[in-house]
Write a structure and sequence with these properties.
The chain is built from ten helices and eight strands. The chain is an alpha/beta fold. Helix 1 packs across helix 4 and helix 8 runs parallel beside helix 9. The protein starts with a strand and ends in a 13-residue tail after the last helix. The relative contact order is 0.19.
Length: 225
């Protein structure tokens, strides 16, 4: 039986993937980088440390990478964050998991201050036991570091005692590298095939679908120790 469910946030609990991609696209432009929206969107789920090397040369990263990332962060918070909404069924799903006596963790490539806002948007402040962000690690997803920190904060939990829920291949890859079985939701816009190839053991349309099929799902196997 699993003792904890570790949720990704962007694209899983809140509808923000397109907004992140738009912010990155707009931020790249003043630095002379015209990048297609779909190319950027396919990388959302990574933190800036892993996304920037996809689009910038090493020389560009050294010359203006930090400045670009800071500009994008400010732009996102000012222009795009106010547009973010929670997906339907998020509060109900997290509450259902919590009702089993299971611990709830958030593991996101977002910054810590953004996570605090997201918890309020999704109305889950009172349900979250621990959280980890890009601020806690040197490497964001698809590296396992964020999930490894989450396991430690959950009380040195064994990876086999947790299940991760995310929307991107980078969530699945990171969780699996940490030894955690992963479940995918399609609400972030990544194809089911991509999630399965990345290692998702199950896939669901969204939080509502997972809630409706909860008893037969891997998160539904969670019980308090």
């Amino acid at each position: 039986m699993f003792k904890a469910v570790i949720f990704d946030i962007d694209g899983t609990l809140i509808d923000s993937v397109d907004l992140h991609a738009q912010a990155w696209q707009e931020a790249f432009a003043p630095f002379g980088k015209q990048i297609e929206f779909d190319n950027i969107r396919s990388q959302i789920g990574k933190g800036g440390d892993q996304l920037l090397p996809v689009f910038l040369s090493r020389e560009e990263q050294e010359r203006f990478g930090k400045q670009l990332e800071e500009f994008r962060g400010d732009l996102y918070k000012r222009k795009y964050l106010p547009q973010v909404k929670a997906f339907p069924g998020v509060r109900e799903l997290v509450q259902r998991v919590k009702d089993d006596g299971t611990k709830i963790a958030l593991a996101s490539s977002a910054k810590q201050d953004e996570i605090e806002i997201y918890k309020r948007i999704a109305y889950i402040n009172d349900l979250v036991d621990v959280q980890t962000s890009a601020d806690d690690v040197e490497r964001s997803k698809p590296h396992p570091d964020i999930y490894q920190v989450a396991l430690r904060r959950l009380g040195e939990l064994n990876p086999a005692e947790a299940v991760a829920v995310g929307d991107s291949p980078y969530d699945a890859i990171a969780a699996n590298k940490a030894g955690i079985i992963s479940v995918g939701v399609l609400s972030g816009g990544f194809p089911k095939q991509d999630l399965e190839q990345a290692g998702c053991a199950e896939t669901y349309q969204d939080c509502v679908d997972l809630l409706h099929r909860y008893e037969q799902s891997l998160p539904g196997l969670t019980r308090a120790a």
